[in-house]
Design brief:
The protein is about 30% helix and about 30% strand. With about 240 residues, the protein is of the alpha+beta class. It has one domain: GHMP Kinase, N-terminal domain (Ribosomal Protein S5, domain 2, 2-Layer Sandwich). A hairpin with a 4-residue loop joins strand 8 and strand 9. Helix 2 crosses helix 3 and helix 3 packs parallel to helix 5. The strands form two sheets. A five-stranded mixed β-sheet has the order 1-2-3-5-4.
Length: about 240
Amino acid sequence: MAADSDPTRISRRNDELRAVTLERAVAPYAEGSCLVSFGATKVLCTASIEEGVPAWRRGRGEGWLTAEYAMLPRATKTRTSRERTQLGGRTQEIQRLIGRSIRAMLDDFRFGEFTIKLDCDVLVADGGTRTASITGACVAAVDAFDWLVRQAPLSASPVKRRVAAVSVGVLGTVPRIDLDYEEDVRAAVDMNVVMSSEGGFVEVQGTGERGTFDRAELDGLLELAMKGLRELDAAQRRVLGV
């Protein structure tokens, strides 16, 4: 779907998420995968399991989880060059956020010396690519750990909670959830919120793009985000059958 044809851009309420879809097992060779859509934004999230861990973790009997993020050249209206030799600052920031967020699903890394590698590839970018990536990567990670259980290296999944993420912002003076691209570039305040299925915050990133915001506005944005995050958690539970 082209970004300009997103039907949610005009019709939805300020507290209403764009149309959200989560589809599991879309990459047949990955141990876990999820195609996630937030409105016109589409991200393919895969989780791959590799034996071994980085050198600095060897010998502990513990695993590791890391993430990579990339935007396909025509995910945007004009072609974006591939980052072949050096990652841009935005890309590094986003993949670190994804990694931190998904690691928050675990209390520890005692699942043997395996590395879970998450790849989040943006197919269509219309705002919220990092929040969609986190929400979809959670589903892919759950399935990857369940694969390890089925294959017998693990007796139980180390996943203790799910995580999801959403953006909120202020357009003019009005708070709005799950900003698309055109809303995001006009927002006076822009915030990304990551929360666990247990109700705790994993990360809150907020910026006054055009001025400052006060405590009451911050509290209002967090309440708005929490409403959407509960809906995203419900969508994850439905697709995972839990």
